[in-house]
Design goal:
Layout (H helix, E strand, L loop, with lengths): L19 H20 L6 H8 L3 H7 L3 H30 L3 H17 L9 H7 L6 H28 L8 H22 L3 H18 L3
Helix pairs in contact: 1-2, 4-5, 4-7, 5-9, 6-7, 7-8, 8-9
Organism: Croceibacterium soli
Protein name: TetR family transcriptional regulator
Keywords: DNA-binding, Transcription, Transcription regulation
Protein backbone atom coordinates (compact mmCIF):
# COMPACT_ATOMS: atom_id res chain seq x y z
CA UNK A 1 0.00 0.00 0.00
CA UNK A 2 1.04 3.40 0.82
CA UNK A 3 4.33 2.06 2.12
CA UNK A 4 4.92 0.55 -1.19
CA UNK A 5 6.32 3.77 -2.42
CA UNK A 6 8.38 4.70 0.58
CA UNK A 7 11.08 2.28 -0.45
CA UNK A 8 11.59 3.94 -3.80
CA UNK A 9 13.64 6.89 -4.93
CA UNK A 10 11.60 9.99 -4.30
CA UNK A 11 11.28 12.80 -6.82
CA UNK A 12 13.96 15.42 -6.37
CA UNK A 13 12.71 18.51 -4.59
CA UNK A 14 14.60 21.78 -4.88
CA UNK A 15 14.92 23.39 -1.47
CA UNK A 16 17.30 25.39 0.66
CA UNK A 17 20.02 23.59 2.56
CA UNK A 18 18.40 22.16 5.72
CA UNK A 19 19.49 23.55 9.05
CA UNK A 20 21.20 21.40 11.67
CA UNK A 21 17.91 21.19 13.57
CA UNK A 22 16.03 20.09 10.45
CA UNK A 23 18.66 17.45 9.73
CA UNK A 24 18.37 16.15 13.29
CA UNK A 25 14.59 16.01 13.04
CA UNK A 26 14.75 14.09 9.75
CA UNK A 27 17.38 11.76 11.20
CA UNK A 28 15.12 10.97 14.15
CA UNK A 29 12.20 10.32 11.81
CA UNK A 30 14.30 8.07 9.56
CA UNK A 31 15.51 6.08 12.57
CA UNK A 32 11.98 5.81 13.94
CA UNK A 33 10.55 4.69 10.60
CA UNK A 34 13.19 2.00 10.24
CA UNK A 35 12.57 0.77 13.78
CA UNK A 36 8.79 0.73 13.30
CA UNK A 37 9.16 -1.27 10.09
CA UNK A 38 11.30 -3.88 11.84
CA UNK A 39 9.65 -4.27 15.24
CA UNK A 40 6.60 -2.05 15.53
CA UNK A 41 5.89 1.28 17.15
CA UNK A 42 5.21 0.02 20.67
CA UNK A 43 8.63 -1.66 20.80
CA UNK A 44 10.41 1.47 19.56
CA UNK A 45 11.60 3.59 22.47
CA UNK A 46 12.59 7.23 22.66
CA UNK A 47 15.80 6.18 24.43
CA UNK A 48 16.97 4.03 21.52
CA UNK A 49 16.18 6.78 19.03
CA UNK A 50 18.14 9.46 20.88
CA UNK A 51 21.05 7.04 21.39
CA UNK A 52 21.12 6.21 17.68
CA UNK A 53 20.85 9.88 16.72
CA UNK A 54 23.53 10.90 19.21
CA UNK A 55 21.40 13.52 20.96
CA UNK A 56 19.90 14.00 24.41
CA UNK A 57 16.32 13.17 25.33
CA UNK A 58 15.62 16.89 25.64
CA UNK A 59 16.74 17.15 22.02
CA UNK A 60 14.01 14.69 21.06
CA UNK A 61 11.36 16.69 22.90
CA UNK A 62 12.55 19.85 21.16
CA UNK A 63 11.33 18.30 17.90
CA UNK A 64 8.40 16.16 19.07
CA UNK A 65 5.94 16.55 21.93
CA UNK A 66 5.82 12.79 22.54
CA UNK A 67 5.78 9.48 20.67
CA UNK A 68 2.30 10.16 19.34
CA UNK A 69 3.49 13.44 17.85
CA UNK A 70 6.38 11.54 16.26
CA UNK A 71 3.89 9.04 14.82
CA UNK A 72 1.71 11.82 13.40
CA UNK A 73 4.68 13.46 11.73
CA UNK A 74 5.85 10.13 10.32
CA UNK A 75 2.43 9.45 8.82
CA UNK A 76 2.18 13.01 7.47
CA UNK A 77 5.60 12.67 5.83
CA UNK A 78 4.62 9.32 4.37
CA UNK A 79 1.41 10.75 2.87
CA UNK A 80 3.30 13.69 1.38
CA UNK A 81 5.96 11.48 -0.22
CA UNK A 82 3.45 8.87 -1.32
CA UNK A 83 1.25 11.50 -2.97
CA UNK A 84 4.23 13.11 -4.67
CA UNK A 85 5.45 9.83 -6.15
CA UNK A 86 2.00 8.70 -7.28
CA UNK A 87 1.51 12.12 -8.88
CA UNK A 88 4.79 11.66 -10.73
CA UNK A 89 3.86 8.19 -12.01
CA UNK A 90 0.36 9.31 -12.99
CA UNK A 91 1.77 12.38 -14.74
CA UNK A 92 4.16 10.23 -16.76
CA UNK A 93 1.36 7.83 -17.70
CA UNK A 94 -1.03 10.64 -18.69
CA UNK A 95 1.68 12.27 -20.80
CA UNK A 96 2.07 9.05 -22.79
CA UNK A 97 -1.63 8.60 -23.58
CA UNK A 98 -4.76 10.76 -23.52
CA UNK A 99 -6.91 7.64 -23.30
CA UNK A 100 -7.95 7.04 -19.66
CA UNK A 101 -7.71 3.25 -19.90
CA UNK A 102 -4.38 3.20 -21.69
CA UNK A 103 -2.89 5.76 -19.32
CA UNK A 104 -4.09 3.75 -16.31
CA UNK A 105 -2.55 0.58 -17.75
CA UNK A 106 0.69 2.47 -18.38
CA UNK A 107 0.59 3.67 -14.77
CA UNK A 108 0.28 0.08 -13.53
CA UNK A 109 3.21 -0.99 -15.71
CA UNK A 110 5.33 1.87 -14.38
CA UNK A 111 4.37 0.91 -10.85
CA UNK A 112 5.32 -2.74 -11.49
CA UNK A 113 8.66 -1.70 -12.98
CA UNK A 114 9.35 0.50 -9.97
CA UNK A 115 8.73 -2.46 -7.66
CA UNK A 116 11.00 -4.63 -9.83
CA UNK A 117 13.80 -2.14 -9.19
CA UNK A 118 13.70 -2.60 -5.42
CA UNK A 119 17.13 -3.86 -4.32
CA UNK A 120 15.61 -6.12 -1.66
CA UNK A 121 12.28 -7.38 -0.35
CA UNK A 122 9.96 -4.46 0.37
CA UNK A 123 10.61 -3.21 3.93
CA UNK A 124 6.94 -2.81 4.82
CA UNK A 125 4.16 -0.26 4.99
CA UNK A 126 4.21 2.50 7.60
CA UNK A 127 0.47 3.13 7.36
CA UNK A 128 -0.29 -0.58 7.74
CA UNK A 129 1.97 -0.70 10.81
CA UNK A 130 -0.03 2.10 12.41
CA UNK A 131 -3.34 0.42 11.58
CA UNK A 132 -2.20 -2.97 12.89
CA UNK A 133 -1.17 -1.34 16.18
CA UNK A 134 -3.97 1.21 16.49
CA UNK A 135 -4.26 0.68 20.26
CA UNK A 136 -0.76 2.10 20.64
CA UNK A 137 -1.84 5.48 19.27
CA UNK A 138 -4.28 8.25 19.98
CA UNK A 139 -7.31 8.33 17.72
CA UNK A 140 -6.01 11.16 15.53
CA UNK A 141 -2.96 9.10 14.50
CA UNK A 142 -5.15 6.19 13.41
CA UNK A 143 -7.41 8.65 11.59
CA UNK A 144 -4.41 9.96 9.64
CA UNK A 145 -3.51 6.40 8.61
CA UNK A 146 -7.07 5.77 7.47
CA UNK A 147 -6.93 9.02 5.51
CA UNK A 148 -3.90 7.73 3.60
CA UNK A 149 -5.94 4.74 2.42
CA UNK A 150 -8.86 6.97 1.48
CA UNK A 151 -6.54 9.15 -0.60
CA UNK A 152 -5.61 6.10 -2.66
CA UNK A 153 -9.29 5.22 -3.00
CA UNK A 154 -10.19 8.73 -4.16
CA UNK A 155 -7.33 8.87 -6.64
CA UNK A 156 -8.04 5.53 -8.30
CA UNK A 157 -11.82 5.80 -8.13
CA UNK A 158 -11.69 9.10 -10.05
CA UNK A 159 -9.42 7.57 -12.69
CA UNK A 160 -11.43 4.36 -13.00
CA UNK A 161 -14.63 6.39 -13.33
CA UNK A 162 -13.08 8.08 -16.37
CA UNK A 163 -12.21 4.67 -17.75
CA UNK A 164 -15.70 3.24 -17.15
CA UNK A 165 -17.36 6.21 -18.84
CA UNK A 166 -15.51 5.47 -22.07
CA UNK A 167 -15.18 1.70 -21.66
CA UNK A 168 -18.15 0.20 -19.77
CA UNK A 169 -16.86 -2.80 -17.79
CA UNK A 170 -17.60 -6.24 -19.18
CA UNK A 171 -18.85 -7.37 -15.76
CA UNK A 172 -20.90 -5.52 -13.16
CA UNK A 173 -18.23 -3.75 -11.13
CA UNK A 174 -18.09 -1.74 -7.92
CA UNK A 175 -15.58 0.95 -8.90
CA UNK A 176 -14.92 1.93 -5.29
CA UNK A 177 -14.03 -1.66 -4.45
CA UNK A 178 -11.87 -1.85 -7.56
CA UNK A 179 -10.09 1.35 -6.50
CA UNK A 180 -9.43 -0.24 -3.09
CA UNK A 181 -8.03 -3.30 -4.85
CA UNK A 182 -4.83 -1.39 -5.54
CA UNK A 183 -4.23 -1.08 -1.79
CA UNK A 184 -5.22 -4.70 -1.24
CA UNK A 185 -2.77 -5.92 -3.88
CA UNK A 186 0.02 -3.69 -2.57
CA UNK A 187 -0.31 -4.74 1.07
CA UNK A 188 -0.82 -8.38 0.17
CA UNK A 189 2.28 -8.28 -2.01
CA UNK A 190 4.31 -6.81 0.85
CA UNK A 191 3.25 -9.58 3.24
CA UNK A 192 3.79 -12.36 0.70
CA UNK A 193 7.16 -11.07 -0.51
CA UNK A 194 8.42 -10.73 3.06
CA UNK A 195 7.14 -14.16 4.08
CA UNK A 196 8.71 -15.85 1.05
CA UNK A 197 11.72 -13.51 0.84
CA UNK A 198 10.89 -13.05 -2.83
CA UNK A 199 11.08 -9.45 -4.00
CA UNK A 200 9.62 -10.36 -7.41
CA UNK A 201 6.18 -10.94 -5.86
CA UNK A 202 5.28 -7.25 -5.94
CA UNK A 203 5.90 -6.74 -9.64
CA UNK A 204 4.05 -9.94 -10.54
CA UNK A 205 0.99 -8.92 -8.55
CA UNK A 206 0.98 -5.43 -10.06
CA UNK A 207 1.07 -6.97 -13.55
CA UNK A 208 -1.82 -9.29 -12.69
CA UNK A 209 -3.83 -6.24 -11.63
CA UNK A 210 -2.89 -4.60 -14.93
CA UNK A 211 -4.14 -7.65 -16.86
CA UNK A 212 -7.38 -7.82 -14.85
CA UNK A 213 -8.17 -4.15 -15.48
CA UNK A 214 -7.40 -4.57 -19.18
CA UNK A 215 -9.71 -7.59 -19.49
CA UNK A 216 -12.44 -5.94 -17.43
CA UNK A 217 -12.66 -2.81 -19.56
CA UNK A 218 -11.12 -3.78 -22.89
CA UNK A 219 -11.98 -7.47 -23.09
CA UNK A 220 -8.85 -8.31 -25.09
Amino acid sequence: MHGTLEAQKRPAVQSAEPTKGERTRQRLMDLAEDAVMHKGFAATSIDELVDAAGITKSGFFYHFQDKDDLAKQLVARFIERDTQLLDELAGRARSLSDDPLQSFLIFLKLFAEMMDDLPNVHPGCLVASVIYQDRAFKRDVSAMAARAILLWRERFHAWLSEVAERYPPKLETDLVALADHFSVVADGAIVTSRALQDKAVFGRQARLLHDYVKLLFDGR
